[in-house]
Amino acid sequence: MKEYDYVILGGGCAGLSLAYELNIHNKLQNKTLAIIEPRKDYIRDKTWSFWKVFEHNFEDCIKKSWGNFSINSETGTRYLECKEFPYQSIDSGLFYKKIINNLKKNQNINFFKSVHEIETSKSFIFNSVPSLDQKGNNLWQHFCGYEIQSIENVFDDKIINLMDFDCEQKNYVHFFYTLPFEKNKALIETTWLSCMNDPKIMNYDDQIKEYIEKKLRIKNYEILYKEQGAIPLFHPLNIKKNKQINIGTAGGMTRLSTGYTFLNIQEHSRYIRENIENISKLSIFEIDKKYQFLDKIFLRVIQNYPGEMRNIFSSMFKVNAAKIIKFLSNESNIFDDISIILKIPKKFFIRSLF
Ligand SMILES: Cc1cc2nc3c(=O)[nH]c(=O)nc-3n(C[C@H](O)[C@H](O)[C@H](O)COP(=O)(O)OP(=O)(O)OC[C@H]3O[C@@H](n4cnc5c(N)ncnc54)[C@H](O)[C@@H]3O)c2cc1C
C-alpha cells in the first residue's frame, strides 16, 4: 500500500480548505497528500455564511454579499449596516468544484474512500472526523432551510434577516433566518438551539412552510434546494495524538455561541500552511480563550433562561454594528467587549457564572 507524507481524514470544508491552502502555496510540490472522503458526489449541501472580517480564498464562490442586516424581536425590528464587514454566503457546490479542479492538477494529491486503502504509519494526519459526545444535555444549533423562488418579487435583496424571533419558542430558542439572493429568491431557515431531544420541534418542513405562507405571505413559490444540519455547540473530544492535528468542527473551530465555523477553518488552514515545515512541533490553534470563557457563560444562560434569549440577542445588537460583528467573529478588542457586555441584561449572566 502506498505511503503518504500527509493524510487528511474527511474531505469536507476543513479538509478541502487545508488541501487547497497547501496546494496554492506550493507546499505539496515535494510532498504527497491523501484525502480520505467516503461521499460519492460533491454536490451543494451547505450554505456557509459569515461577516467577512478578513480576506479568504473563496471570493469567487460567493453566492451573494450584503451590506445590511436586521433582527426582529417582540419589541420590533433593528436595522444594522455592515458595509465595512459584508455578510457573505458561500455556495458549497462552487467551493467543492473549485477546490477539486485545483487539486486534480497536482499528481501528488490522491483521493480515497477509506483510510484502509493506504499506509498511514509514517504519515502526518489532519483529522476532520469529529468524535462527538452525544450526551443528552449538550446544546446543538439545528436547522433546516429551503431556497425558494417566488412568482412575484417579494424580497428586499439588499438586506438579510439574521434572526426573526417572532415565532413560537416552545421553551427553547427559535428563530427564522432569511437570505434574499434575488428579489424573488431566498434561503429561509428555521433554527433552534436545543439539546435535540424533543421530536416536537423537528417538524421543520411544516415550520418553514407556515413561515413562508403566513408570515412572509408568499403563496406561489417553488422549492429549489433544501439543506438541513446540526452544529454541535460543544467541542468534540480532542484526544491529543502524536503526529495528528484535528481540524474543522473536530478541531474546535466552531464559535460555540453562534455556530460560525467557516472563517475559523480558513484561519486554521493558514496557520497550518505557515508552519507546515515544523508541523510536529506546532502548538494547538484554538479560538481565543476570552471567547471560549464568554461563550461558556452564554451557553449556560441559553440553557437556564431560553425564554430570555430573544431579548438578550436584541440587546446585544444595540451597539454599533462593527463592534458586535467583530465580537462574534473573534476580532474584537477589550473596548468592543466592554460596550457589548454593558448592553446585555446582567442578572442572567451573573446567575449563570457558577
Ligand atoms: C447545513 C450546515 C450549514 C452550515 N452553515 C454554516 C454557516 O453558515 N457559517 C458557518 O460559519 N458555519 C456553518 N456551518 C458549520 C460548519 O462551517 C460546517 O459544518 C463545516 O462543514 C464544518 O467543516 P468540517 O470539515 O469540520 O466538517 P464537514 O464539512 O462535515 O466535513 C467532514 C467530512 O468528513 C467526511 N467523513 C465522515 N466520516 C468519515 C470517515 N469515517 N472517514 C473519512 N471521512 C469521513 C464527511 O463525508 C465530510 O465530507 C454549517 C453546518 C451545516 C451542517
* Category by helix and strand content: alpha/beta
Q: Note the overall shape.
A: globular
Question: Strand portion, in percent?
Answer: 25-35%
Rg of Cα set = 21 Å
Indicate how many domains the architecture comprises: 3
Assembly level: single chain
CATH class call of the largest domain: Alpha Beta
- What composes the largest sheet? 7 strands, mixed
CATH H-level superfamily title of the largest domain:
FAD/NAD(P)-binding domain
Helicity level, as a percent range?
25-40%
The ordered H/E elements are EHEEEEEEHEEEEEEHEEHHHHHH
Largest sheet strand order: 6-5-11-12-13-10-14
| CATH fold naming of the largest domain | FAD/NAD(P)-binding domain
- Mean pLDDT score, rounded? 94
Separation, N- and C-terminal Cα atoms: 53 Å
Number of helices: 9
Secondary structure: number of strands: 15
Low-confidence stretches: none
Question: Can you characterise this structure?
Answer:
- The chain is of the alpha/beta class and 354 residues long.
- It folds into three domains: 6-71 and 92-133 and 234-281, FAD/NAD(P)-binding domain (3-Layer(bba) Sandwich); 140-232, Alpha-Beta Plaits; 289-351, no CATH class.
- It is 28% helix and 27% strand.
- The chain contains nine helices and 15 strands.
- The chain has helices at residues 13-24, 92-104, 204-215, 262-274, 289-304, 309-316, 321-328, 334-343, 346-351, and strands spanning 6-9, 33-36, 47-51, 62-66, 68-73, 76-81, 87-91, 109-112, 124-127, 140-150, 160-164, 173-182, 185-194, 221-232, 244-246.
- The strands form three sheets. A seven-stranded mixed beta sheet has the order 6-5-11-12-13-10-14, sandwiched between helices. A five-stranded parallel beta sheet has the order 8-2-1-9-15, with helices on one face. It has a three-stranded antiparallel beta sheet with strand order 3-7-4.
- Helix 1 (13-24) links the parallel strand 1 (6-9) and strand 2.
- Helix 1 crosses helix 2, helix 1 runs parallel beside helix 4 (262-274) and helix 7 (321-328) crosses helix 8.
- The radius of gyration is 21 Å and the shape is globular.
- The chain starts with 5 loop residues before the first strand and ends with a helix.
- The model has no long low-confidence stretch (mean pLDDT 94).
- The structure holds flavin-adenine dinucleotide (FAD).
